[in-house]
Design a protein that fits this description.
Blueprint lengths: L34 H18 L2 H14 L9 E3 L2 E6 L8 E5 L1 H4 L7 E5 H8 L4 E7 L6 E7 L6 E7 L4 E2 L5 E5 L2 E6 L2 E5 L15 E6 L9 E4 L6 E7 L9 E7 L5 E7 L14 H7 L1 E2 L6 E6 L2 E6 L3 E2 L4 E2 L4 E5 H5 L6 E4 L5 E8 L3 E8 L2 E8 L5 E5 L6 E7 L10 E8 L5 E6 L13 E3 L10 E5 L9 E9 L5 E9 L10 E4 L14 H8 L18 E5 L9 H5 L7 H16 L8 E6 L1 H12 L6 E5 L18 H4 L5 H7 L17 E6 L8 H12 L5 E6 L10 H20 L2
Helix pairs in contact: 2-7, 2-14
């Protein structure tokens, strides 16, 4: 979107006009695609690259690109029917290949892949820089799919129907123009769609607010609207639970997202509204009459699994039959819910150390992925045996282990699962197993620890192992805890040399996020490993080996995230937002106090909400850092609700147009905290023109204001593609991350 300068007539809820706000000399930069604005961007890019694009930069970027394009990465797959689907990018195919193979072939070292769609070839043929955004295979016969393609790497994508046998887009099939579309198959010829048709079809946050039932061959504007939400809500989301060959009723799901953390879920049992010929009605009244709204507090997340309704509250919920704690999980029978009786049964309760991160169903089991003081744990519940429980043992410390169903709709794989294990220094391993199998059918000594008469969980078979892409010898992982301003204990991971000298002289990169209940957990990152911890096993030495010291990487688990459940998040929202910045600065001080590093040797980096985090480190705690890399960030919190999708984040940060909210928001608005007579560490702001979520505007304005004040060592770079991650392909990822690491290492070491 293109923002325009507001007029004096625009009134805020506080009674002030925009003209009465402090002068914003950089409003002109909010025209994202204006000629003058892009000329400013071009000039900034040239200056930044002239300073940092040297041989060492190219070495880092080359090593990163080699690692990201590695042919022996694990090709993660999704099973549909008899095939296993994968999307793959490499040096030869930078935009990627959508492909599939069989199970027998996948298990080999060199699977025989059937290419379904070559996105590079498609982009060249259609003269559009398509970026893959996913696909949804129709389950009735696994022949047709809805393919999502972004024209520029942003959140908007075009949806086109694809035939997996003909390997071509379907003539006369579903084809929805580029928008922030959500959709779901209902049957072979019908989809439920939330998309943009005109200005009235969008919320203030720029997301769809209308749900339509679209039949094959029908124009989207002619499809009837079966549900809509007010413009000031975040969005309407749609989904379905359609199970061909299953006795369970098929359902359509509609979610009214009031804000990021409050919603109302409704559903329609499709079998109850089908017409005599088996088709679904297009009469909005038929849908409205069949719609059941789940009547629970709006901060209770609701989901379905066959005849179970699942509830996960953000705050403690006192229901008719039970008190469900914040972050817990409860279930109820769908027949009771339809009858207006909601009697939840708690099947998981969090505590001060343990939180539920996600869960996965197979046909007969429910697997909970938990964090205990940010350490991974898996618990298996038997759906056939009154939710009896077992805990998977053998999960190593400082690693993450995740589990997902292979295909619960296929009787042959109904209780099979994928398991992925990864760590900061441990390349990912993909394993395959079966829940409920004979415990004797194991491939290692690890198994389960029964808590009750729980299900058997034999250890899975390793199917694929990723290669090491940077040398981990001599490196170790430690977990430490810092104390924040209010006494709260804040965990963080430290990765560095196992003989680390605590002399305050180690170049250290502090990472974090602290928002939207997003948990930051251990994981293997060749970008961090090559760019900061060491050097590639495949190429020349990079930054962290030049001075004889490896860099130290630190990941902070601050409030605002989800590491300890929803209350860890809500405790740092809105008027309590400063807590996450206090937490992060407490980790920085702990690193300095322990002698790991010093302010001159400590850098921080973050993107998006993490960009807001490090923007506040730059403006509120500049004495703690020697450099700041701030990517695709929020920074101008006075106008963030008027830029791109910012309106949707009011529940997280507050509404700056309400005077009472602005009083606390202004305390963490970096754009308004820049002072004339204060020393700031070197700063790099990087973003992407095509980012339609946060947008490039805020990074532009922050750099421009700091430079205009004569603050030295302020750099800016804006990529013209790549969407919110500035990473539409591996080459772009390698380039932007190499720029960040090259800048940081130079600032900390002078090299």
């Amino acid at each position: 979107m293109t923002s325009t300068e507001p007029t004096e007539a625009e009134q805020s809820d506080s009674g002030q006009t925009e003209a009465e706000m402090p002068e914003d000399e950089n409003l002109w930069l909010e025209d994202i695609h204006g000629d003058g604005q892009l000329a400013w961007v071009k000039d900034q890019n040239q200056k930044t690259l002239a300073r940092f694009h040297d041989d060492l930069f190219d070495s880092i970027a080359g090593d990163l690109r080699t690692a990201l394009d590695s042919d022996d990465r694990i090709p993660m797959v999704t099973k549909r029917g008899d095939h296993f689907f994968n999307f793959w990018r490499d040096k030869t195919n930078p935009k990627g290949l959508w492909r599939r193979t069989t199970w027998d072939s996948y298990r080999t070292e060199a699977p025989d892949w059937e290419i379904l769609l070559d996105v590079d070839e498609l982009a060249a043929r259609e003269d559009t820089a398509w970026v893959w955004a996913g696909a949804m295979v129709r389950r009735s016969d696994n022949r047709r799919a809805l393919v999502l393609l972004s024209p520029d790497g942003g959140d908007s994508h075009r949806v086109r129907e694809f035939d997996l046998v003909d390997k071509a887009f379907v003539d006369g099939g579903f084809d929805i123009p580029a928008a922030k579309t959500r959709l779901a198959w209902l049957d072979d010829d019908t989809v439920l769609v939330a998309t943009e048709t005109d200005e009235d079809s969008l919320t203030t946050s720029s997301y769809p607010r209308q749900a339509r039932v679209l039949r094959r061959g029908q124009d989207i504007v002619e499809a009837p609207i079966v549900a809509e939400v007010p413009r000031d809500h975040v969005a309407i989301f749609v989904g379905s639970d359609v199970r061909p060959g299953d006795e369970t009723t098929d359902r359509a799901v509609i979610v009214d997202a009031l804000d990021f953390f409050n919603s109302r879920l409704s559903f329609v049992d499709l079998d109850e509204i089908r017409t005599a010929d088996g088709s679904l009605p297009t009469d909005p009244e038929a849908w409205s009459n069949a719609l059941t709204t789940v009547d629970v507090p709006t901060d209770v997340e609701v989901g379905f699994e066959r005849d179970l309704v699942l509830f996960r509250p953000q705050s403690t919920w006192t229901a008719t039959t039970a008190e469900v704690p914040a972050g817990g999980l409860a279930v109820a029978d769908i027949a009771d819910v339809k009858a207006g009786r909601i009697n939840p049964r708690v099947i998981f309760a969090s505590d001060s150390h343990t939180s539920l991160q996600s869960f996965t169903f197979t046909r007969d089991y429910l697997v909970l992925e938990l964090l205990a003081d940010v350490q991974s744990r898996l618990t298996v519940l038997d759906l056939r045996n009154d939710f009896s429980t077992s805990t998977l043992t053998g999960v190593p410390a400082n690693h993450m282990v995740g589990l997902g169903a292979v295909d619960k709709f296929d009787p042959a794989t109904a209780n099979d699962y994928w398991m992925v294990s990864t760590g900061f220094l441990t390349p990912s391993t993909l394993s395959y197993g079966t829940l409920g199998a004979d415990p004797g059918d194991t491939h290692s000594a690890e198994g389960v620890k029964p808590e009750t008469a729980g299900p058997a969980v034999p250890s899975p078979e390793v199917v694929k192992s990723a290669p090491a892409l940077f040398p981990a010898e001599g490196l170790s992982v430690e977990q430490h805890f810092a104390t924040s301003t209010d006494g709260t204990t804040i965990p963080y991971f430290q990765i560095g040399s196992d003989d680390l000298e605590l002399d305050g002289n180690n170049p250290t990169l502090l990472d974090g996020y602290g928002g939207f209940e997003v948990s930051r957990t251990p994981g293997y990152s060749p970008v961090v490993g090559i760019g900061w911890l060491g050097r590639s096993t495949r190429g020349k030495a990079t930054t962290s080996m030049q001075s004889g010291r490896r860099g130290v990487y630190v990941l902070a688990n601050i409030r605002g995230g989800g590491e300890y459940g929803p209350e860890w998040h809500t405790s740092a929202m809105r008027e309590n937002r400063m807590r996450c910045y206090e937490d992060y600065s407490a980790v920085a001080r702990d690193l300095i106090d322990r002698g790991v590093t010093s302010p001159q040797k400590l850098a921080c980096a973050g993107g998006s909400n993490g960009g807001l985090l490090v923007g506040n480190m730059l403006t509120q705690y500049p004495e703690l850092f020697g450099a700041v890399s701030c990517g695709v960030p929020l920074l101008d919190m006075r106008r963030y609700t008027k830029l791109s999708a910012g309106y949707s984040w009011k529940a997280e940060y507050g509404d700056p147009d309400i005077a009472e909210d602005w009083e606390f928001i202004r305390r963490f608005s970096p754009y308004h905290l820049i002072e004339d007579d204060r020393d700031y560490p070197p700063a790099l702001f990087w973003t992407a023109t095509s980012d339609d979520r946060v947008g490039p505007v805020q990074a532009r304005k922050m750099a421009a204001r700091m430079q205009a004040k004569g603050i030295e060592d302020v750099w800016f770079f804006e990529d013209t593609e790549g969407g919110h991650s500035a990473a539409s392909d591996n080459e772009q990822t390698a380039f932007t991350r190499a720029l960040s690491y090259r800048f940081l290492w130079n600032a900390l070491t002078g090299e």
